[in-house]
Amino acid sequence: MQSAECRVRSMEGGFTLLEVMVALLIIATSFIVLLHSRNQSVIAADYARRVTIATLLATEKMGEMEQGNLSNTGEDIGNFGEDYPEFMWRTIISDTPYEQVREVRVEISWGEGKGHRSVELVNYIKAVNSE
User: Fold this and answer.
1) Cα(70)–Cα(47) distance, rounded to whole angstroms?
2) Residue 53 lies in a domain
3) 98 lies in some domain
4) Burial class of 58 by CB neighbour count within 10 A (0 to 12, 13 to 18, 19+)
């Protein structure tokens, strides 16, 4: 009678190997999903930061264009020097069907290859006569 009672007690005492393996599988899968989610959040935050900087730089460059002479049409490119070395700018001034009105495009770009991104502002500005 004692041996039957011992067997019953030992069977009640823990988890089977299969139960432990299933629990570890669930924990590992959850960890992988959480890690992926965190990485996506970091990527999204970095992209948002760069778009914000590019938008502010484009606004600043557009302000410079509005203050400058818009009598000549054409394209110009450059960078922001040591302050923002990863960002490049490109401006395009073109004619419109309306006399003395110019279309001004400012494009700020960053990254290379597959990671190339850009922000573009377009504005219509009256060209000032210097006559």
Assistant:
1) 33
2) yes
3) yes
4) buried
Residue 119: pLDDT band (50, 70, 90) is: very high
- For 24-63, the pLDDT digits (tens) are 999 999 999 999 999 999 999 999 999 999 999 999 999 9
Q: What percent of the chain has pLDDT over 90?
A: 69
- Answer yes or no: is 60 within a domain: yes
Domain that holds residue 81: 2-126
Instruction: Supply the pLDDT for residue 99.
Output: 85
Q: How far apart are CA 74 and CA 68, in angstroms?
A: 14
Q: How far apart are CA 129 and CA 106, in angstroms?
A: 22
Kind plus residue range of the DSSP H or E element containing 63: helix 17-67
Residues 6 or more apart whose CB falls under 8 angstroms from that of 70 comprise 93, 102, 104, 125, 127, 128
Contact criterion met (CB below 8 Å) for 108 and 61 = yes
Separation CA 5–CA 2 (nearest Å): 5
CATH number reported for the structural domain that contains residue 92 in this entry: 3.30.1300.30
Please count the structural domains in the chain.
Answer: 1
